[in-house]
Amino acid sequence: MKQRGPGGDKPLSRRPGAGEGAGRRPDPAPAKPKIIDKASANDRALDAVIAADKREALKLAPVSHETEARLDRYIALLREWQAKTNLVAPSTLPHLWTRHIADSLQLVALAPSAKRWADLGSGGGFPGVVLACAMAGTPGASVHLVERITKKAAFLREAIRVTTSPGVVHLAEIGDNVDRITGPVDCVTARALAPLHQLIGFAEPLMRHGAKALFLKGQDVEAELTEAAKYWNIQPELHQSRTGDGWIVELTSVERRR
Length: 258
Known about the structure:
Rossmann fold, seven-stranded mixed sheet
């Protein structure tokens, strides 16, 4: 017989008996597996390596706090753009400061009175953007950065903007730099651009008007000097790099061989 509840004909609900769930706690949800973000871990590891490399670089080429802050912003921007535009060799990222920043900064000591610079084939900004950061506190300073690749020229403009440095970017073939650069130039530079005899050809119009040349070269500098002497009368002065096995070729005058 159905039992009726006090309010009508509905059967009374049956209470669970012992062992039928009374007092039982729900089973805990299975633990979610921890997801390790390898990209973030790699970035943090790279951050630590770059920070250590920065300390070593600033021992080789000390700068003011203001210049250091500009260089920090530049490096942050370069790492951001490097993901989509190849600005430096990936293998050199852990050594951005010693391999690229300090390597560029050493030029300042070789031309301490230079205020107006021209950097041919600036690429990722070495040495041009670094020089612009170093020159930012110098009245009347300017750095012309000549780059023929559109994406790299766009990066250089953004680097000059975020570092508030006195640079002007020229999107042009390297040989067209004379038409693009107005006003006198004290020093012309280039790094990893072309063989020395070609660099001299690019720089000669500027040097004819008083510019000195400082070209960053590798270990094979002697072979490049021998080749350059076939085309140019030169009296080079060599400076060993503080940051590796390379050399800096200093030229104060050049004359084409006839």
